[in-house]
Design brief:
Blueprint lengths: L7 E14 L2 E15 L4 E6 L5 H9 L6 E6 L2 E2 L7 E4 L11 H11 L4 H14 L15 H14 L4 E5 L7 H18 L2 E5 L3 H7 L2 E6 L4 E7 L9 H5 L2 H18 L1 H6 L5
Parallel strand pairs: 3-8, 3-9, 6-7, 7-8
Antiparallel strand pairs: 1-2, 1-4, 4-5, 9-10
The protein binds adenosine-5'-triphosphate.
Adenosine-5'-triphosphate binds next to strand 1, strand 2 and helix 1.
GO molecular function: ATP binding; ATP hydrolysis activity
Protein name: ABC transporter ATP-binding protein
Keywords: ATP-binding, Nucleotide-binding, Transport
Length: 274
């Protein structure tokens, strides 16, 4: 288990954006008094309808956006900008096309002034962790989409963050590649004990990975309900997990609540869980 672990506290976070379109100026209230405590080593899935503020919340956690009010702390220290204790994996890996996989993973270490030999060793370790050591010298255009996401994950892990933020990291991948990467994330979480906050639209993915699924609702973005996932860890073979009654029951419970916000009539017509 890694020494670096951190709890995250989100206290009463609100955020609005001013949107200007032509002569019209509109105030969009994106997050309304969001509060959540994430325990050290916990994996949280954030889900909810499009536009409910999931990415905005993640950007505030990373320090790319400032909340209008409320605060976020990591291990008790207030987040005031980007910092070494957090890193993010994006939906598209956003790799430098002219750099090899290894050089892409080295990037964050370079920015921190880590000497060449040490950063190459660390980057190779992380590529190994995501099963890509054999492709260290390939450029992004010589890698599949799934491999590029693995490089993005290795790059995020290279700086040994206490908190890993993942914004729909597998959203653009085909189903089989996605399932492989879900298993990888579970293994890496098990091996490193990182605190992970993971945004996904995919309820299967949310239940498979998370200790708790946080369902957000839009207009304004807020936490609607929090669902603890009682599945034991390590979760092992995901085909088996998907076949468990507890898995389908939890997925259905969350889906029903999500639909109650999106299509109230359909949700009312669906049978209750269990
Ligand atoms: N920089 C910005 N300026 C203006 N409005 C913004 C900005 N960033 C986000 N928004 C608005 O905030 C709202 C929430 O966006 P956000 O991307 O956080 O939602 P989301 O839940 O992640 O959506 P999705 O599931 O579609 O990715 C949207 O209405 C969006 O248009």
């Amino acid at each position: 288990m890694a020494a670096k672990q951190a709890g995250v506290t989100i206290e009463d976070v609100s955020k609005s954006f001013t949107v200007r379109a032509g002569k019209q100026v509109e105030q969009v209230h994106v997050l309304d008094r969001v509060s959540l405590r994430v325990e050290p080593g916990e994996m949280i899935a954030l889900t909810g309808l499009s536009g409910c503020g999931k990415t905005t919340l993640l950007r505030i956690l990373l320090g790319l956006e400032r909340a209008d009010s409320g605060r976020v702390t990591v291990n008790g220290a207030e987040v005031r900008g980007c910092g070494e204790d957090r890193s993010m994996v994006f939906q598209n890996a956003q790799l430098f096309p002219w750099r090899s996989a290894l050089q892409n993973v080295e990037f964050g270490l370079e920015a921190r002034g880590v000497p060449k030999r040490e950063r190459s060793r660390t980057a190779l370790d992380k590529l190994e962790l995501v099963g890509l050591a054999h492709a260290a010298d390939r450029r992004p255009d010589q890698l599949s989409g799934g491999m590029q996401q693995r490089v993005g994950l290795a790059r995020a892990l290279s700086v040994d963050p206490a908190v890993l933020l993942m914004d729909e990291p597998f959203g653009a991948l085909d189903a089989q590649t996605r399932e492989g990467l879900q298993a990888e994330v579970l293994r890496i979480h098990q091996e490193t004990g990182k605190t992970i906050i993971f945004v996904t639209h995919d309820l299967d993915e949310a239940v498979l990975l998370a200790d708790r699924v946080v369902l957000m609702a839009p207009n304004p973005g807020r936490i609607d309900e929090i669902f603890p996932v009682g599945l034991a860890r390590p979760r092992g073979d995901l085909v088996t997990v998907r076949g468990l009654k507890e898995f389908s029951a939890k997925r259905y419970e969350i889906w029903r609540r999500l639909m109650a916000g999106a299509h109230p009539q359909a949700a009312a017509a669906a049978p209750a869980a269990g």
